[in-house]
Amino acid sequence: MEGRPWLFRKYLILFDRLLNPVERDHIRLSSSPYWIKIASCPPEYDKKDLLHAIGSTFRGVLRSKITDDVCRLRVNLDVQKPLRREQDGKEDDTSIAAKGILLGGKILASWEEGLKEQVDSREEADLNTSKENNNKGESSLKELKRPTWKRILSTNHSDHQKFVNAGVKRKGLAEESGQENMEVESAVGISLSKWAHTIKGKKGEIRKRLTKELEILMKEDRDDETLDRNTTNFHNCASARRRVIIISKLILDDGKEINDASVIHDEAKLYFEKLFNTNGVANPREVLEGIEESISIEANEYLLAPFSEDEVKTTLKGMGPIKAPGPDGFPAIFFQKYWHIVGKEVLGFCLRVLNEGKEVDSVNMTNIVLIPKVQNPTSLVNFRPISLCSVLYKLVAKTIANRMQNVMDTCIDQVQSAFVPGRVEWDFIKEVMNKMGFARKWIELIMKCITSVSYTVLINGSRGRIFNPSGGLRQGDPLSPFLFLICSEGLSALMRTAKKNGLLRGAKASRKGLEISHLLFADDCMMFGEATEKGARVLKDLLNTYERCSGQCVNFGKSTIFYSTNTTEGSKAAVGRLLGVRSSSSPKKYLGLPNMVGRQKKEAFQNLVDRIASRIERWSSRLLSQGGKEVFIKSVLQAIPTHAMSCFLFPRVLCEKIESILARFWWQKGPGKRGIHWCQWRFLCRSKEEGGLGFRRMAQFNISLLAKQGWRLLNFLNSLVARAFKAKYFPNTNFLHLRLGSLCSYIWRNIWATKGTLEKGLLWKVGTGSNISISQDTWIPDYVNGRLLSSFDNLQCDKVAELISSNETEWNKELIVNTFPADVAELILRIPLSMEPHEEFLAWSGEPMGVFSVRSSYKLLQRLDPTAYALHNIYKDFYRRLWQIEIPSKMKIFIWKISWNYIASKVNMYNRRLVNNILCPRCGGDDEMLNHLFRECPVSAEIWRMLPEVNLTGFTNNEFSDWLTMVVASLSLEKSRTFCIALWSIWGDRNSRIHEKSNRSSREIVRFIYSYIQDLEGIRTNISKNLSVNRKWRNPPATRLKINFDGRRNISADRVVVRDSSGNILLSSADIHKGVHTTFAAEALAYRRATQIALNMKEEDMIIEGDSLTVIKKCQSTVQDKSQINTYIYDIRSMKSSMRSLTYVFTLRSANRLAHVLPVESLRREEGFYLLHRVPDFAEGQARRDSEREPD
């Protein structure tokens, strides 16, 4: 029976086979015809009624037979909710015959509980029939242990009492004569018949009513044709995708074709065994000579520090929840959702591997999945192998990678942009890492991860035999990108050595520019050299050397040579013969971008327009709702030109063409159908808070993407591209002060065009103030006009340093108040100054972190758009609440439409000359305007009266937009959801009356509204449990002290408490600061205070612990901070440099309660405190609870 549906042809045969436990989910059939035999029936018993009564518990009788005193009936047996047989003493083979039946995945011998589950409408029947009395030759009833018939959970008490009385009466007459017994049985039979007919009638009425209501709801909520088409389309897509990835045959190198699945598995195993086997490493001395030791002692100390639980948890949070699982079948979402169950074991395993050297072999099994690179692939070369690792291995590897990425920029050449995948020798990686200066223990940890792997190839869903490789890296391993970078550093070292020895000459972008010998990006390597036989031989020797040492090979079939215009034909022929690579004269594209952009710029990017139109054409027939269209436009269509826009400035005509295609798709009602464009595209591109839908203006988005290139030229002067541009276009100035010269490249003119946008968003961060102009520079945060643009007579010079006291690092308050207007003076005094002066620098004002982002630049351009309109705050609040309501996107967009009167009402259609009649199609009593349609129409008014939770009696505004805004603003989000669904239902009913000629009553519409809300409640996803638990304060290790800090804004109080390993209080402190307007700044101020206390105590290995992760990360980083708290971070780093043993640790708010409660009394009294060996009285309880906890 394995692999086939269950067949209930002969019940005895089937049940004889089901003697062992069987899992329920292996049963494919939900019900099947089944014969039931009832033997020894009394002669005068109404057998038809009896059969009908029993059959009703099985959802009706299919067939029935009555022969003599034996009754048989054929019913549908529900396999998922089967019967169980109650056995009293010896089993009766002539009664309902069965050896046992499935229930809950096991074979059970009784059928009573199964009968209870089979009964429809919550009813049960317990039938006991007496055996025939052969000695007396007549029917008799034996004494019964309980009533013969009774209804369980009956909804009709009178019926229930009748049958109980009948059972008692029958028991009392059991000892009378045979004639009397026959009369009793006849009475019982009549009662059974009446009961069966009554129940049947009630069940039929209930079934008809429920069926009718269900059909109405289905008809209202769904379009059967649409549902069928979507279902068909889904299955067609799934089947088509499966046909694409199915490997039905392979053609081997000798031309032999194989079709057998086992043979295909064997060939795949041999192919990948050969691919991942080592060919032996040549002496890498020549490669290693050009690699310098770049990993410092501090970097190795950072890498070798013990891994913590928080690092593993952070890694798990960052993993894709539903990415393809490994051999164990568990995706990351399983561990994320059930961390409270499996977290302890997972953490223990990972930390033992990371810190204690435990082997990782047990979780390092990898499935190789083959993804076709071409249509109808017949060779394994045409598949892209993707390695599916287990989540446990990814947790270990990604935790290592997260640390490693912080030191990669110190050991990788600037010509590398990504990684170079391919076959790599493990010994070569080890040698290169050793030469770079990585610690031996760190190298061993890396090698343990990559050498303990085992593979199996998945072909058509089935796994092949396991094999162990001896080389290579997996595409899918979190460590692989970093190891590929390290490996390819060997090629860069060879190129640098050859150029240093004069064997190789690179290319220059300008006379004084850099000489570039090679560029690496993803799996491409672009090499520059002389187009001579000597130059070609040098390149070939370098590639051969690198191949012998690393194992990576050049794919000459995909390689191409490009020559400069002054190269002779003889040189081209000689180089081509020596390298054996095809040549090309005019490369059109590289990495999806045009290499040459001439005068016809629109035609150069026409392929992007064609791709957008092609995507729309493929999706137009898939019946997307407005919500689906919104996601499709934002996530797919607008993302197509993003890569090209980050490098080139598109012509305005091209941007408008793309927007017109998107607008046509948004408003159209079907493939090939034109829709009504209710507003211009630029209004849809306003943010949702501003009354739009958040689509992109392509021209503004293009400028924002290019502005990021200008930001990089300002802040990353040592990058390869910045050095190349600076050498050619602005060797003696910076990007902001340069002028556009003549003979500039197209891409440089594009980047230069964004300089104005950058200038509007840049802000000077005050240090010494000696280089910042008071009137001409932008240096005051939140100042509306940006620059002051006025002179001040009482100032000796126009520098910000004039406003800072010379003796102390603080503002000269008296001078500022007397010089500037009150609002400007207040803004200036808010700017924090560091304890030690530093040089000023430029930051981005649009982000709190001070770093440029495309999002904030786009918002800046929208705000500066002269055609933009200002929306009243009332309407901003309305739209903000609208997008927070938990309803489907199509409903939110519908409410947005009616807020702007963008729907096809009769009046709107008449204004566009599309209809002649403007009367309401439901009542015909007035013009169909929004007010009448949703408020005044009798049908709508009745609906609102039947929704008590949406009380609209207090809203009498005449304008519909005001009414809509005020209702949503006054109702809670839950009631607003009901209100919005009601509006959507009214519109749906109106359309049904017009297009489907169907009328529904107000009661039916209200019933549908409540039903829809119940459906939304049913599909509301449960929020996955947070990975972090409610952590408590932990004592520091022995001989170490821990300082906890916290901060609060406005009248800020920074609070610090110092404790030893026993939890004893050594110091508690709280200081009051006025004018701190953000929690961000208050936390940084408290952090600085904690660092000051640590320096004053002069203790070694102190721990500073707080619950502000952002501040802690900034203090641990070495990158210049440009955020709002940059002055505090600068001071903290300066103090930390004089005390290297200081450690900064993040903890949860629950573990930082003592530092959190200290400022309560301080803020109330507006005074601080400094206490030794104790805390204030109001905090003693919390201090006592913390000290009771066990140390780590």
UniProtKB/TrEMBL annotation:
<dbReference type="InterPro" id="IPR002156">
    <property type="entry name" value="RNaseH_domain"/>
</dbReference>
<feature type="region of interest" description="Disordered">
    <location>
        <begin position="122"/>
        <end position="143"/>
    </location>
</feature>
<dbReference type="Pfam" id="PF00078">
    <property type="entry name" value="RVT_1"/>
</dbReference>
<dbReference type="InterPro" id="IPR036397">
    <property type="entry name" value="RNaseH_sf"/>
</dbReference>
<dbReference type="Pfam" id="PF13456">
    <property type="entry name" value="RVT_3"/>
</dbReference>
<dbReference type="InterPro" id="IPR044730">
    <property type="entry name" value="RNase_H-like_dom_plant"/>
</dbReference>
<dbReference type="InterPro" id="IPR026960">
    <property type="entry name" value="RVT-Znf"/>
</dbReference>
<feature type="compositionally biased region" description="Basic and acidic residues">
    <location>
        <begin position="133"/>
        <end position="143"/>
    </location>
</feature>
<protein>
    <submittedName>
        <fullName>Reverse transcriptase</fullName>
    </submittedName>
</protein>
<dbReference type="GO" id="GO:0003676">
    <property type="term" value="F:nucleic acid binding"/>
</dbReference>
<dbReference type="Pfam" id="PF13966">
    <property type="entry name" value="zf-RVT"/>
</dbReference>
<dbReference type="GO" id="GO:0004523">
    <property type="term" value="F:RNA-DNA hybrid ribonuclease activity"/>
</dbReference>
<keyword id="KW-0808">Transferase</keyword>
<dbReference type="InterPro" id="IPR043502">
    <property type="entry name" value="DNA/RNA_pol_sf"/>
</dbReference>
<keyword id="KW-0548">Nucleotidyltransferase</keyword>
<feature type="domain" description="Reverse transcriptase">
    <location>
        <begin position="352"/>
        <end position="595"/>
    </location>
</feature>
<dbReference type="GO" id="GO:0003964">
    <property type="term" value="F:RNA-directed DNA polymerase activity"/>
</dbReference>
<dbReference type="InterPro" id="IPR000477">
    <property type="entry name" value="RT_dom"/>
</dbReference>
<keyword id="KW-0695">RNA-directed DNA polymerase</keyword>
